[in-house]
Design goal:
Blueprint: E1 101-112, E2 117-127, E3 136-142, H1 143-156, H2 180-199, H3 207-214, H4 217-225, H5 230-245, H6 254-302, H7 309-374, H8 379-456
Antiparallel strand pairs: 1-2, 2-3
Helix pairs in contact: 6-7, 7-8
Length: 458
Amino acid sequence: MEAEGRGPALPPLPPPPPGGRGGAGAGADPHAAAGAPGPARRPLLAAAEVLALDDEEDDLEVFSKDTSLAEVNSFSPSMPISPSSMINQYKFEDEPELRDLFITVDDPESHITAIETFITYRVVTKTSRGEFDSSEYEVRRRYQDFLWLKSKLEEAHPTLIIPPLPEKFIMKGMVERFSDEFIETRRKALHKFLNRIADHPTLTFNEDFKIFLTAQAWELSSHKKQGPGLLSRMGQTVRAVASSVRGGVKNRPEMFTEMNDYMETFSQKINVLDKIAHRIYKEEREYFNEMKEYGPIYTLWSASEEDTADSLKGVASCIDKCCKATEKRMAGLSENLLPILHEYVLYSEILMGVLKRRDHIQGELDSKVDALANKKTEKDLFSEEIGKLEDKVECANNALKADWERWKQNMQCDMRSTFTNVAENNLRYYEECLATWESFLASQRVDLHVEENSEDRP
């Protein structure tokens, strides 16, 4: 990124955190996606654009079937300051250039009004980009604001792969609404969502993204009201559904048919893995709870068994150590495996939607070509429309092809990293438990040898 035309220079920015990348963001060519602006062509934003409060109750219902999150307490106005320590959270891995946009989501706060309870999160941005008026921003956003941003990105870039957000709803009995566990899990997911957008070669320059990061609450609210109304959005949805009902696309290129087939298989497999992994985690938690009750029984028993007291206490100690090892393994599952699997469940849904939108654009072109073939009049008008639609289809195809390649590459990288972490955690767990029980066995053999020697003496 060139330094010309920028605001105050910042010290060299350190690399991004491992957790802030992944998915469609990690290791991507910064100009791979079609239409991605190069370093010299960043879009400038109008200074008066803004953002805001929700008029909906969407945050009353909270997040996903399978996650864990942190705690919260009042609505504070945004200020252009950020903790300098946030930069140190980032670690650079594979990109040769230094990043120029750093985002942290933290400090959740709960808000209780007469009609609703919701959570806001602090979003801290540090940047050296010239199109930003300041080098640092701090704003507060609620979940509904993140949903708004995602919808605006999908509207502006219908055939790019927009990173997933955590679901709005939770399954009863899985995690309590507004619990620390739930809030922390959602915070991590929102942090990843924004950083994946920041790492994307095209999405990172979206104007609504900039407004989301910089605008005060009242400005965001005002900006939201400038968007299309409910009836307009409903009309777009009805047209998309009608297009899908009409049937498949006649002239779909082979590569997009292959993408569709790949995603159907991928979606099926990743959904099964996600369900089984959550079932295993649930069973592991039940085993852990049983172990916590199991060990103390040996300790209590030792009080009434003088001759075997040491052995009983030794067993209790081993069970306690294995219980702690199990807890660490569960933490590894919940932090490394479960979030990644479920994130790619959401990615599979997003990609199927992107492919449908590409087919919709292709379908518009096909219908115009058919209409031109059946009409002898208005050929000039139809030819002009067909030319525009051909350009639109080409842009959509190029954008999706570029994003598809970077998504697959980063999905494979994420999966390799996740499975490696799981393997390492399992090895540590079993080695720790094995060493614990081997130590107990060795102590018992020593005691037995001492007793035998004492019995042999006259």
